[in-house]
Amino acid sequence: MSAALLAIPASADEAFDDAPETPVVTVMRINSAIGPITVREIKNGLERSEDLDAEAFVIELNTPGGNMESTWDIIQVILASEIPVVIYVSPPGARAASAGVYISYAAHVAAMAPQTNIGSAHPVSMGAPMDSTMAEKVTNDAVAKIKTLGQKRGRNIEWAEEAVRQSVSVTEFEALELNVIDFLADDLDDLLYQMDGATVEIITGDFVLDTEGAEKVPLNVGFANQILEILSDPNVAYILMTIGLLGLYFEFSNPGAILPGVIGGIALILALFSFQALPINFAGVLLILLALVLFLLEVKITSHGILGGGGVISLFLGSLMLVNDAEWPYKSISLSVIIPVVVVFTLFFFLAAWLSIRAHKRKVETGQAGIVGEIGVAKSVIGPDGGSVFINGEYWKAVSEVQIEPNNKIKVVDVKGMELRVEKL
After folding, report:
1. SS3 at position 59
2. What residue numbers bound the domain in which 381 lies?
3. Of all residues in the chain, what percent carry a pLDDT higher than 90?
4. Is residue 15 in a domain?
5. Does residue 162 form part of some domain?
6. What's the chain's Rg over C-alpha atoms?
């Protein structure tokens, strides 16, 4: 009896301590182009995974590609991770193109869902077009990086080189057969079941995955990252740029207004943040700046619309060329955004030019010059030697080449000092 009592745990807490804990797997979805915000999201996800002591950090990936510098940053983060990173190309219909290939090759485990594809990893220019020598250097550097990753993870090096040099792409079944990925899974639960017990190499050494039946903890990207993700949209960046240019124009046109300058400055800074993740064509930027200069000149100089018309053409062409959509079609600015912005921008500046011309043509209504053309009444005989007239409630000294009798209506034709030259009306 005593032996039986001794076998009972001293407390319920000890009994729970001896019970095996359910393993945890963290899950994050990336469904956009790779950029600086993606780097931040993955870093935050890994930190959260470490806090939870997760068995693995699963990234459900669907990307058309992205910024290569951000891609290299993500690869470095994965290679230095103390938790296995799993790239799962999903849901059905998703792809891991361009930057997604490099990230998949860097991951400790790579998997794909049905009806997905991977490939087309040839690097492209992020600004001015590269000459053949520079393009070859960039391509060779990308090939070396992905071959190194393939050797480390035991994946197909030959196919990886073809994906970079020839932009080849394969389906999920071909990827599994070619040893591009490790698993083909119908869903996340199927993936966790298949990779359970697999051994992967992390920075601290070999790690055996315990993922079957693991608790899946979704990781949200956070409100701040969601806002930054929105700002990285090329259409949003374009609108922010135009708001910034308009704000600075108002500030320079009306020094001391303050509010337009503050709003314009903030909008331009946010636009520049967005542009760093986009394949910007600097010729497009220069054309847009030229359009702004031409619009400003139209307000100051009467060109009968020539400067304004040139500004419209420059703004439209610059907007079309701003993002290099020939190489990165998923990063292009929509025409449904460009056309309204160009129309609003154009109408605003032509309205400003019309108001300026109208102000210049308006008759002067103040000072001595403002009295020219006014109608009055002669109060005395007016001749070359002078006389008196009554205009707008005031008496003035006036002269006339032709004698004008009192009580006749007169019209002012000129002003010299304090003397008016009038004629009989």
Report:
1. strand
2. 368-424
3. 37
4. no
5. yes
6. 37
* 349 in Cβ contact with 355 (< 8 Å): no
Model confidence band, residue 2 (pLDDT cutoffs 50, 70, 90): very low
> Are 127 and 260 within one domain?
no
| CATH number of the domain encompassing residue 136 | 3.90.226.10
Q: What is the mean pLDDT of residues 80-101?
A: 95
Give the residue with greater pLDDT, 124 vs 342: 342
In this structure, what DSSP letter does residue 130 have? P
Per the CB < 8 A criterion, the answer to whether 187 and 94 are in contact is: no
CB 59 within 8 A of CB 31: no
247-280 residues labelled b (16+ CB within 10 A) or e (exposed): bbbebeeeeeeeebbebbeebbebbebbbebbbb
Give the tokens for residue 269.
């800074």
**Cα 353–chain centre separation:** 31
Neighbours of 153 (CB within 10 A): 18
**Which domain-ending residue is among 316, 344, 361?**
361
Q: Is the pTM of this model over 0.70?
A: no
Query: Across-strand partners of 124?
Result: none
Domain count, the chain: 3
Shared domain check, 248 and 196: no
Contact 123, 142 (CB under 8 A): yes
E strands, 83-198, are 85-89, 95-97, 109-112, 117-119, 169-171, 183-184
Which positions ≥6 away from 187 have C-beta within 8 Å?
A: 90, 113
Spatial contact of 184 and 90, defined as CB atoms under 8 Å apart: no
In a domain, 3, yes or no: no
Only one residue has tokens 């986009």, namely 278
Final residue of a domain: which of 221, 253, 283? 221
Predicted pLDDT at 17? 47
Clarify whether residues 247 and 208 are in a common domain. Answer: no
Alpha carbons 264 and 252: distance in angstroms, whole number: 11
CA–CA dist 93, 89 (Å, integer): 9
DSSP code of residue 370: G
Q: Please give the positions annotated as active site.
A: 98, 137
Average pLDDT of the residues of the chain? 82
Cα–Cα distance measured from residue 278 to residue 325, given in angstroms and rounded to the nearest whole number: 10
State the pLDDT confidence band at 305, using cuts at 50, 70 and 90: low
